[in-house]
Specification:
The protein is mainly α. Helices cover about 70% and strands about 10% of the residues.
């Protein structure tokens, strides 16, 4: 199947190049200008497609991060332990006891 598609594409390209050779100089310039515009438009689709693909992929991540930020803001300040200028969230401790952590 793939081989047949590739052979058909090659045959079309060869026919187009043969037709180009048969044209006069003015028509050949117009032919080249037309196909150059077509190829420029196709080439411009690449970055557009990549940009939209990345936007679709990052939209879910951005929504999750926004939901987490909103949830943290609604829940208020997290429980922390302050020792001088050191702030340690209680969630960093392995145990749930109320005693302060041992310092080295």
């Amino acid at each position: 199947m793939f081989e047949q598609l590739l052979a058909g594409a090659v045959a079309l390209v060869c026919a187009a190049l043969l037709l180009r050779l048969a044209l006069g100089p003015e028509k050949r310039q117009r032919w080249d200008r037309t196909w150059r515009r077509v190829f420029d438009r196709v080439r411009a689709l690449g970055p557009w497609a990549v940009r939209n693909w990345r936007m679709v992929g990052s939209r879910g991540s951005a929504q999750r991060q926004a939901d987490q930020a909103i949830r943290r803001a609604r829940n208020g300040k997290p429980a922390v332990e302050r020792t001088g200028n050191v702030i340690r969230p209680r969630s960093f401790r392995g145990d749930d006891s109320d005693k302060p952590p041992t310092l080295h």
